[in-house]
User: What shape does this take?
Amino acid sequence: MNSPAIENEARLEELLSEPTEDVIETLSRLPGDILLLGVAGKMGPTLARMARRAADAAGIERRVIGVSRFSTPGSQEDLARHGVETIACDLMNDGELARLPDAPLVVYMTGRKFGSSDDASATWAMNTFLPGMVAKRYRDSRIVAFSSGNIYGLVPVSSGGSREEDPLRPVGEYAMTCVGRERILEAFSRIQQTPMAVLRLNYACEMRYGVLVDLAKKIWAGEPVDLAMGYLNTIWQGDANALTLRAFEHTATPPTIINMTGPETLSVRELAERFGQLMNRPVHFEGKEADTALLNDARAGLKRLGSPRIKAETLVEWVADWVARGGKSLGKPTHFESRDGAF
Assistant: This one.
């Protein structure tokens, strides 16, 4: 191991929410409260805590407010312990959305992916109708909204990944609704002159979930690794959190489109072999690598927002140690290996 292991969840969440100097400086230049919609998801809690810590470090009085239905017991209380205000809200309810406080800085994280194939209409409502509702409610705010690298479709591995200006070829209804979300946000950005940034994220990863966790768990359990989706991108969630807050300085009309992922194109075969080495487990493969994959070229985005602090090799070592020690898992596989867009 070339880097210290992350010993427990408290330390993990401390690292995930640690703001960079760039984040602190960004928030020092942008006054006003920060509102995070859909904060109770996988990425939201530590993003909210980073915003709180950065605001405190900048010495600026501001509220950091997390909004969600908060269906998991204790999630509100945990955020409150770290200085994040919370509001339980069904965003699809017009009245509840209208009663939310104004805020000049809004992070839009709400979306539906898993279960999309089983209830497509609910996915379309959440991913395309709700963004319009939110854009109207927060027409006078800067909005940083999450999208997905799935919207590009499969591209040749030799291409180095899709770039922001590339045509969109979504496969499956989930990816189609992600395109719909972007188009709705763009329309309201143009009509209302609302500055926005849209982040096409490919696989944020930490110790409890992510593409690397999925691979490590398979190897630890002695299960074969499917090579059909033979290559991937990923980024340490702590870095994704930091780049998200940095994006507030890059909002524009029409929206600024930013690919967000790590700079490396990673081989699934090589990752699996490295996990096997680190965890002292045999590695079994099935199938072979296709010459296409879901890949993003993040060079332009990283030039705008800053380079990740954590390299892929460090992240692999952290994940291997965590999984081998039986560290907590969120039990939410990414299904990154899906090539037909069904989730």
About this structure: The chain has a mean pLDDT of 93. The first strand starts at residue 34 and ends at 37. Residues 111 and 255 are 18 Å apart (CA to CA).
